[in-house]
Amino acid sequence: MIYTLHGWSFDRRVWTGTPFEDGNHLELPGHGESPFKSTDLLDLAEEVAEKIKGRATLVGWSLGATVSLIAGALHPEKVEKLILLAPTLKFSGVSQPEVVVERFLKKLRRDFWKAVKEFRALCTGEEFPIPKLQPEVATQLLESFSRFDLSPYAEQVKLPVEILVGEEDSITGVVGALSLLKKLKKARITVYPGRDHFTVLYSPSA
After folding, report:
1. What does residue 116 show for φ and ψ, rounded to 5 degrees?
2. Residue 138: strand, helix, or coil
3. 110 vs 186, more confident
4. What is the pLDDT of residue 180?
5. Where are the alpha helices (DSSP H) in the chain?
6. Is-contact 166 173, C-beta < 8 A?
7. Burial class of residue 123 (count of CB atoms within 10 Å of its CB; 0-12, 13-18, 19+)
8. 160: which of 22, 61, 105, 189 lies 20 to 30 Å off by Cα?
9. How many CB atoms lie within 10 A of CB 18?
10. pLDDT by residue (tens digit) across 91-131?
């Protein structure tokens, strides 16, 4: 069974037309019709793990990849494989300079919807509808993700991990994916030429 978890400011619709279209699509807090409440990534990973029935493949994109890895590290009895699209070891300080992240978070607090549109334009040139978002919850979630270091969780993961990243990804970037790869025991990476942070979703999984 496959469970998916999308990235920030998107929703379950991103999986339409991807290799994971038929999965069980979970939504982040403050996004779409999410049942999840916590914006703390550790607590959120526990909420996600509770939704998993049996042993599953957990597919996460961007912020969703971080939560998926934490869930796999904390609950290996529920997750048999991780597929991580556009993941990063740490968003602020690895994928993006800390000053850039802090500037964006301040902008998000000042004008949420304008900042969301700017973020999504950086993700891809593809058009995709903005989902129903709860600004305060979504902002808190991104703040948690931005400063979260996956290192101690990645180091304890013994599951097989597949990393997929677009060569043109300007959000988490190839550098974020490679930094995470170095911390994992059983992982491999595929870098897709011409794909960005969003269009990597349409790349075939190995």
Report:
1. -60, -45
2. helix
3. 110
4. 98
5. 41-51, 63-74, 98-110, 112-123, 135-146, 151-154, 173-181
6. no
7. buried
8. 22
9. 19
10. 999 999 999 999 999 999 999 999 999 999 999 988 889 99
Q: Tokens 């991103």 identify what position?
A: 14
Q: Does the reported pTM lie above 0.90? A: yes
- Read off the tokens for 158: 């013994």
Contacting residues for 52 by C-beta, under 8 A, at least 6 apart = 3, 58, 71, 75, 78, 79
Q: How many CB atoms lie within 10 A of CB 16?
A: 10
Instruction: For residue range 40-91, list pLDDT tens digits in order.
Output: 999 999 999 999 988 899 999 999 999 999 999 999 999 999 999 999 999 9
**β-strand partners of 2:** 57
CA distances from 96 to 46, 66, 142, 170 (A): 27, 16, 14, 9
CA distances from 59 to 2, 15, 23, 135 (A): 7, 10, 9, 25
Q: Element (H or E) spanning 4, and its range?
A: strand 2-5
| Domains of the chain, each with CATH number or no CATH | 2-202 (3.40.50.1820)
